[in-house]
From TrEMBL:
SUPFAM superfamilies: Chaperone J-domain (SSF46565). It comes from Fretibacterium fastidiosum. It comes from the Bacteria. This is DnaJ-class molecular chaperone with C-terminal Zn finger domain. It holds the Pfam family DnaJ. Keywords: Coiled coil.
Amino acid sequence: MEMNLFGEVKASLRALGLEPGATEADVRSAFRRLALTCHPDVVGQGGALRFQQIAGAYSLLKGLAPDELRQLSGAGWRQQRSLVKRRTSTFLDWYRRRRDRARQEAEEARRAEREEERRQAEERSERVDRVLEQYDRSLSRRLERMSKSADAAQLNDVLSRLGSSVAEVRRLALGRVGTLINRAEVRQAVSDLLCRWDVDEKTARLVGALPMEAGVLRRLAADVASRADQFPNSLVMSLLALRSRDVSPDPILMERYLVSVRPDCVAAILRYWPDDSAPSDAALRRLLGSEDAQVLVPLLSAMKQRFPHAVPHFRGRLEELLEHPAPAVRVWCRVLLAQGGV
């Protein structure tokens, strides 16, 4: 109500052309001046509305006591306006604080909602991972059982065929062995096959193509060394790993084969003999005791080029070989005997 009165006083002063702080005399003087300029008797009916406005303003202001007029139009108005400003400022501050708090609460709610969604997503992901892990383990066990069952069936089939009396069946079995060759029972079956049956070139190639580990290859070569003179050269070279880049030849095995292979295989073994070793004197003596030029020529050549330290031990035999019917043998013997220090 007080605010409305202040507003009406301010509007009335404005209608009379007065400023806040006007006195009762100022109000009366302003009314008289304006009445002379806008009274209907002076300006006609066109000034009636304006006259009603100033008359109403004058009536309101005239009804106030001098102290009330001074308070409402002067310092009181300024105080009230200052109070209104303070109240307005206080309200705006409260509104801003409330707005900021609401925004903060909304942001915290959104953050909590996102965090909850992230947590739920992680839980779902963990549940899915556990389910998949359980499924993988179950599938792995099932596949392992199936693999063992299949391997057992394949192993029994391969072992049965390797022991067949039909050469073609044995060759088919060798083609299916694969990595099973590294199992002891399969290696033994292949060893029995090589020791029991004649080995042709097809069988030799199949055995040489088996993916044997180094230890398995050496054991197989040792098992069948007594039959080396019955094997094709290709099988001997495969068993001794003479052309392998992954397996180093074993000089002990090479010597066992050197003294028992067919004459035409001696040259191949000597050609691949490791540089850091040499055949024993017993092996050289046995080879020099042969009369076959296929054995003597590569042996004498190797003694000249790779085993010169062994020449003095066999001078007597070299002199005997000067009478050998093969010209190549006689030439190599003369070369060896002519070496310095012999």
